[in-house]
Amino acid sequence: MAIPSEESELMASPAPLRVAVIGAGYWGPNLARNFKAAPDWELAAIVDMDRARAAKLAAAHGDVAVCGSVRELLDTVDVDAVAIATPAHTHHGIALTALRAGKHVLVEKPLADARAKGLEMVAEAETRGLVLMADHTYCYTPAVLKIRELIADGSLGEILFIDSVRINLGLVQPDVDVFWDLAPHDLSILDFILPGGLRPAEVSAHGADPLGTGNACVGHLTFALSGGGMAHVHVNWLSPTKIRQLVVGGSRRTLVWDDLNPQQRLSVYDRGVSLDAQSRSAAERKASAISYRLGDTWSPALPEHEALGQMVAEFASSIWQQRPARTSGAAGLRVLSVLEAVSSSLGAAGRPAAVTGNEFQLEGTR
Amino acid sequence: MAIPSEESELMASPAPLRVAVIGAGYWGPNLARNFKAAPDWELAAIVDMDRARAAKLAAAHGDVAVCGSVRELLDTVDVDAVAIATPAHTHHGIALTALRAGKHVLVEKPLADARAKGLEMVAEAETRGLVLMADHTYCYTPAVLKIRELIADGSLGEILFIDSVRINLGLVQPDVDVFWDLAPHDLSILDFILPGGLRPAEVSAHGADPLGTGNACVGHLTFALSGGGMAHVHVNWLSPTKIRQLVVGGSRRTLVWDDLNPQQRLSVYDRGVSLDAQSRSAAERKASAISYRLGDTWSPALPEHEALGQMVAEFASSIWQQRPARTSGAAGLRVLSVLEAVSSSLGAAGRPAAVTGNEFQLEGTR
Amino acid sequence: MAIPSEESELMASPAPLRVAVIGAGYWGPNLARNFKAAPDWELAAIVDMDRARAAKLAAAHGDVAVCGSVRELLDTVDVDAVAIATPAHTHHGIALTALRAGKHVLVEKPLADARAKGLEMVAEAETRGLVLMADHTYCYTPAVLKIRELIADGSLGEILFIDSVRINLGLVQPDVDVFWDLAPHDLSILDFILPGGLRPAEVSAHGADPLGTGNACVGHLTFALSGGGMAHVHVNWLSPTKIRQLVVGGSRRTLVWDDLNPQQRLSVYDRGVSLDAQSRSAAERKASAISYRLGDTWSPALPEHEALGQMVAEFASSIWQQRPARTSGAAGLRVLSVLEAVSSSLGAAGRPAAVTGNEFQLEGTR
Amino acid sequence: MAIPSEESELMASPAPLRVAVIGAGYWGPNLARNFKAAPDWELAAIVDMDRARAAKLAAAHGDVAVCGSVRELLDTVDVDAVAIATPAHTHHGIALTALRAGKHVLVEKPLADARAKGLEMVAEAETRGLVLMADHTYCYTPAVLKIRELIADGSLGEILFIDSVRINLGLVQPDVDVFWDLAPHDLSILDFILPGGLRPAEVSAHGADPLGTGNACVGHLTFALSGGGMAHVHVNWLSPTKIRQLVVGGSRRTLVWDDLNPQQRLSVYDRGVSLDAQSRSAAERKASAISYRLGDTWSPALPEHEALGQMVAEFASSIWQQRPARTSGAAGLRVLSVLEAVSSSLGAAGRPAAVTGNEFQLEGTR
Question: Which of A217, A277, B24, C266 could form a disulfide with A237 if both were Cys (CB 3.0 to 4.6 A apart)?
């Protein structure tokens, strides 16, 4: 008699998980579409205070319940998980309610609008053994997955510098500055690709609000990398040109990700400066120990898949396997910690500000 | 009897000025070639401690004297001016010697390797009524001249942000960091194009030396602009890609100078974000007061001329007209002041450092 | 009593026209979506031999009838017009059936798979006073509309040369060559932007089938423009790089449309070569009469709108106003005429082939 | 007693060859500079009818004779070789005179202004055992050398298509059309990189002279490649944008050379369309046999060297080794043969014209 192996049991498809999308505004429809299309998921409900908006989104996906509040959802629809795509200041309340009702939770970035709130969310999920996942969508794009792989397998060597630029004519927002609006993308990507995650001891941030909108519209943030390198992030709502570019300079190779160049998104340069390792003593620090490498450029082919599809699949996998998601609540919290330090530094005229919370490093959260 | 008009007198060419080029290394040959070709100048001597090197450069230009030292030059050759293209730490000594001998002086960037030395040089020239000019070559390129004009005539409006990037696989140098090597270009350009010159109250600098060369190889510096905007300069010796780009974001238009794109060096974008001027009170700071402008892009044709030729012509004009040069010693000093503050900030782990010397604002130096 | 002015009468919305989309494959869903969204139209039915495919598309748009054949459509659903998005060889049969049933007809490009068939379709529509429109979608993009305007208002001057490149890794097709697959786009655009439409006397075509697929996969076609200039079209299924670029060189300015550069789709160069007009006699043809113009580059802002939306609006307008559509059946026929000549030239090893059908120039078809 | 090995004898530098540069106009100075710098050569004389112009060029290079005519050169200066950089219509006369005087000859492109003249030059050199070399400079650039290598070693597979574009605002010339001015570059490159050299049976050319200058200013030429592929060359004097690009599409990989992109001159795409080789029968020609390959892109690092330096070195080597130069007179003749066919095709309104002279294939000339 054949006994199923553990693997084949894992392979056997369990029944789809039931999920509700909370928030039918800008991002909710994308989540709904991807949950609908995923074999792992059954889209069970759309929730929005604007019930008409919820109903319209639900109608596009067939037999889906419509709720006007989270309370109504929890009272009337049986779901395993919720996906929160509401304004940032509401994430904390909704997530805690859902977690306390035993639901797994996916949260749109940023995890919350304050580190303390995020910490409470992570702790609640941890206590209850539920998955709390941050929707760091970029981390599921083929480009970022490839970058992570190239760093992890040593192709780039040690990281010497990182430069992330995310600028365009952006929607100036009344209640959030350009750091909190755009930098979560950059920071969540860095958290994902850096071997130890995003754990700077302190950050410096410089911003400007030259139009007098009440919030910084242009910003630069820098922090030291372990190993002596540095990272810089430039976010800007006022630029008429659109740039989304990440450079990861390594001791072996340097990688450039130009997200707006579909014909050559990733370029890996086998060019650089080297210092003879044996002469790294102060006495030997001389130009003569420096050499230059002029090698080929390589642009790896990337598979075509939609990042959100991978993300909802990971949400399901992490629930089934009872493990933290790849972009876990803890990852979202690390991003929040840096954002709070950014605000502190901004408030202190650019003086470096300590990043709190690196003490909070749950076992297994990455 | 015909009386010469004032104009024709001005038009009458005076006898060419006689100049010696000091330093026959990397930059000296460029200066020699341009002085040789200029109608205003007579190239009288080449000076280099390596007399053979001086002789070789002299030979390429016909009847030119060769000297092994500045002393020998002053003793044996009759010159009106000297052009100093030696290492930065020697500028101060050579310039003072020449000024004290009554010579006008052109100095390669940076003006000196310390602000105090530059100050002494400027004071000496001022006292003696001699021209002390900084060779800020970029300020004589067609692109920078056009940028200055577009800012001065209001085409860009108020300056909201500046982003200057100068990165490539650079010659890592043993005795100077990447800020002192590359940023003088960016800072001298900013000094030239900003209506009031380069006068930040303080700057923040963040650098890294991930290869352990003894000096920062990657650097970011930021400072506030008058009017609420901010400037950022990125210099980097470790980048396998070469970028030389300046963005000047204005309230009316935004300009991008891409020096490595000969087919479209300057682009002026009539696109941007505006805040209704009348609602700039705190109470009215609302997204509703913000509007977006989506206009044309324009790339002005630029004349073709060599910057160094314009620069040596300006040196002659400033001598004849007994006025400060466009890129005066004072301009060089403003650049030095910022560089010293950069070093202070770097030494203070990125804390903002005050820029000294803004008290030194000679009449007429700009 | 108020009498409605002519304008307000025009403004009064008539009842929407009822349309069926025939063909639920690749393009049909795009047509359906745009008819559904248009105030001028009511999407009444989806027709496909694969009834399940039709039903799926219909379901996405609410209350829409499903038919398995054109016959069934005409027998059971009341429509004013049909939009045909089926394979090219079926256009003729379906269009004639629909026209004979009194329906206005929109046809996917190319109008038919042979000129004679297209001619019959145009004649049938003409006889019956019905609109026969070619879905030359590109002609409704903001870029092409702007190009047409710049040519019509004389901004470019006389057209000296045209170069249209449409290459990428294409779907090699078993029953059509690269000219019939891709060149209809280029030819329909040229028909739209050239003041007199696309009416070359003859064309030369050169193609290759280096993989032995049975059809040309790489092709170049050239023809003379009235006025002495020439046009060239390059189509290619085998290119790993994707280029969609049209250059229109004019005696006053030259325009480049790079459809894959969203940040600067259109560039207008005020640069060029001029010949002194008064010296255009043979005796005076000398280099000395030639001058060069080095002016600015200008990139006009383009409005954002979906081309298909404009196209279906034009279909409605042409029906209401009882006039030929901007991309009329006659325009489609001109494209077919050139394609047939291309095939003739290809069959004659590249010898120029006459374009028939320029005798067929219906009044008012443009 | 040590006996020198054959190798060391070969290595022993022979005395430099003595060369005269004939023509001190645009290109002559470049040749003079490179001969002067080459260890293999001694620059012995400059020849120009404008003796002052010759003298000026000679003066820049030290002890070099000045002649006003080829006759004077041959009578008064002892040279091994001459380099001809005069107008094309004078090449034949000067070259024959020099060859008959026993001199090796390097000729600026094109070899002559008519195929018959070129043939006579090649025959004369052949008879006398002298080197006749065409200055196909591009063939000595790192990029073209690499392209030749990638084709020769099978990296690209079989060549499916070639597209060469050379357009910019060019100097419209009174006595030559755009094909004879620009296409020699493209054709000499193709001759160099195609495994069998440039030997089309016939070519088609289409040109236009929309300004009425008397010569074609815009041109397209096409011809079939052995193996079923095709080549296309676009030359244009009227384009405000400058493009110098060669695409070589292969069955295994496709190469793009963008000569104006110094940061990525060569790109090799491992992307393409394949046809299952075993199904290349007519019966099996189906889309199902076609597959698509989506691989990486690779940009090889290229060494930095000046092409002209390599070219003059090859001239010396071919003389010493008594072998045809890599860009031999026969290569120049093949280019001429195609250019004459181009003119024939142009004169026949674009009908394909046979390329004569493929019967003339000297042993060992490639």
Answer: A217
- CA distances from residue C78 to A353, C37, D139, D171 in whole angstroms, order as listed: 71, 20, 69, 65
Tokens of B81: 């001016």
- Mean of the pLDDT values across residues C76-81? 98
| Domain housing A160 | 139-304+334-354
Per-residue pLDDT of D109-149, as tens digits, reads 999 999 999 999 999 999 999 999 999 999 999 999 999 99
Q: Is C350 on the interface with D (CB under 8 A)?
A: yes
Instruction: Kindly state the average pLDDT of the residues A125-138.
Output: 98
Residues D202 and D258 in one domain: yes
Residues in chain A within 8 Å Cβ distance of B240: 249, 254, 269, 271-272
Q: Which of A260-264, B203-207, C315-319 has the lowest mean pLDDT?
A: A260-264
CATH classification of the domain holding C339: 3.30.360.10
Q: Would you state the pLDDT for residue B174?
A: 76
Is position B364 within any domain? no
| Count of beta carbons in the 10 Å neighbourhood of residue D55 | 15
Q: Which residues lie below 8 Å from residue A298, measured CB to CB, with a gap of 6+?
A: A267, A268, A270, D296, D297, D298, D299
User: Taking CB atoms and an 8 Å cutoff, what residues of chain D touch A301?
Assistant: 270-271, 294-297
CB contact under 8 A, B224 and A214: no
Does residue C110 sit in the same domain as residue C197?
no
> In this structure, are D124 and D148 located in the same domain?
no
User: Whole-number mean pLDDT of chain C?
Assistant: 90
Q: Measured between CB atoms, does C293 come within 8 Å of chain D? A: no
Which segments of chain C does DSSP mark as H helices, in order?
6-11, 28-37, 51-59, 70-76, 88-100, 115-128, 142-152, 178-193, 307-320, 329-347
pLDDT tier for residue A288 given thresholds of 50, 70 and 90: low
Cβ–Cβ below 8 Å for B210 and A220 = no
| CB contact D271 to A (< 8 Å) | yes
A277 Cβ under 8 Å from any chain B Cβ: no
- D159, D222, D282: residue with CB nearest C220: D222
A360 within some domain: no
Residue A262 touches partner D, C-beta closer than 8 Å: no
Q: Give how far B23 is from chain A: nearest CA, Å.
A: 22
Residue of A nearest to C60 (CA): A60
Asked if residue A51 is part of any domain, the answer here is yes
Residue D99: CB partners within 8 Å, gap ≥ 6? D105, D121, D124, D125, D128, D130, D132
Q: Do A210 and B227 touch (CB under 8 A)?
A: yes
Burial class (CB in 10 A: 0-12, 13-18, 19+), A359: exposed
Residue with tokens 């609540």: A329
Residue C299 at interface with chain B, using a CB cutoff of 8 Å: yes
**Closest approach of B115 to chain A, Cα-based (Å):** 24
Q: Give the best residue of C221, C273, C276 to mutate against chain D (max D CB count within 10 A).
A: C273
Structurally, chain B folds into a number of domains equal to 2
Cα–Cα distance measured from residue A194 to residue A338, given in angstroms and rounded to the nearest whole number: 15
Nearest CA in chain A to D299: A297
pTM of the predicted structure, to 2 decimals:
0.90
* B60 occurs within a structural domain: yes
- B286 and B302 in a single domain? The answer is yes
- Say if residue B68 is in the same domain as residue B84: yes
Tens-place pLDDT, residues C165-187: 999 998 887 789 999 999 999 99
Q: Give chain D positions within 8 Å (CB) of C161.
A: 208, 210, 218, 236, 238
Asked if residue A145 and residue A91 are part of one domain, the reply reads no
How much is the ipTM here?
Answer: 0.90
**Are C169 and D292 inside 8 Å of each other by CB?**
yes
User: A230 and B207 in contact by Cβ < 8 A?
Assistant: yes
Cα–Cα distance measured from residue D219 to residue D182, given in angstroms and rounded to the nearest whole number: 10
- Which residues of chain D fall below pLDDT 70? 1-13, 276-289, 358-366
Using one digit for the tens of pLDDT, what is the confidence trace for B53-73?
999 999 888 889 999 999 999
Pairing of strands A266-275, A254-258: antiparallel
CATH code: domain of residue A37: 3.40.50.720
Same domain? For A143 and A132 the reply is no
